[in-house]
Amino acid sequence: MNQALRIAQYGCGKMAVYTMRYVYEKGAEIVAAFDVNPAVIGKDIGEVMGCGRKGVKIEDAKHADRILKETKPDACIITTMSLMSDVEDAFKVCAENGVNAISTCEEAFFPWNSSPGITRELDEIARKTGCTLCGAGYQDVFWGNLITTLAGATHRITKIRGKSSYNVEDYGIALAKAHGAGLSLEDFEKEIASADNISESARQQLIEKGEFAPSFMWNVNGWLCSQLGLTIVHQIQKCVPQTYDKDLKSETLQMTVPAGYATGMSAIVITETEEGITLETECIGKVYAPEEFDQNDWTIEGEPNTQVVIDRPATVELTCATVVNRLPELIDAPSGYTTTEKMGVNRYKVKPLHEYVKTK
């Protein structure tokens, strides 16, 4: 491709500050921006980015259909919420206009095992209009390709264990509330944990109806099994509250979380496969105490055993950089809802992004 990529930004909050800057710094440009928040609608995107004016006004998301038709961007970056039901409309308006779209939505990483109905519908629209939809971010590398690369150096695998933690303060109020931050333990049990105290058949019914709320690792385990060629026979998840023995102030929740209340949760997913390999993965999202920090810890058990621990990864920046670096692969991928294990390993882009795009 011999001209700069033209990108739309859907959602102009904390993550967009990075994605939009990275787009410009990778030789592309933002041609449209959308949000639902009256506080940012009408602003120049430069105000959100903390730089000079860019000449692109943030529009109300209800006008996205018209503006996408007019601007015809090469791709759209969606940085809003964490569930497919939340980003369905954003994906749909992109797909209907033939605009490739990539989202930081955690469920979008591998939604086939949690929201198959929504995903099938989006897949059909995107195939008809000739565009590609997918989810990517931190998990694409640190919970996905990093692990499958290590697996490629292993003779025999019996179990894959993973644990990752992140500060919900960095991702906005919707994610913090979804993790139960600020709830009493009684309310956490009612509003968060009880949803997983169901039978496997009942969970499958929720999945088919599009009413299941997966933890982040639910979709990651599906992605890993797809990448490794494993056949899932059984998968469960449970959510456990995280607490702290002192009051913690949360800027995102605009409250002080009392000592002993839920600061967030640990979501544990156990997947058993036909091939005899078990995946036990855990993500911990909470309001951090002063001494806490992000950590990514994975172990492959077998012959040989291998462990990789990454302390203090810059999770937000890594998420946004992964998404922006994925744009050429998104544009070149087969039409439809194409998850990133089918796009190959994400690579650093030393040249402007358009130089990596081939004709679709």
UniProtKB/TrEMBL annotation:
InterPro entries, per this entry? DapB_N, NAD(P)-bd_dom_sf
Q: What's a BP term from Gene Ontology annotated to this protein? A: lysine biosynthetic process via diaminopimelate
Its signal peptide is: none
Q: Which residues form the Dihydrodipicolinate reductase N-terminal domain?
A: 6-103
Q: Which GO terms describe its molecular function?
A: 4-hydroxy-tetrahydrodipicolinate reductase
Q: Does the keyword Heme apply?
A: no
Q: Which CDD domains match?
A: nat-AmDH_N_like
Keywords, A to Z? NADP, Oxidoreductase
**Name this protein carries in UniProt:** Dihydrodipicolinate reductase
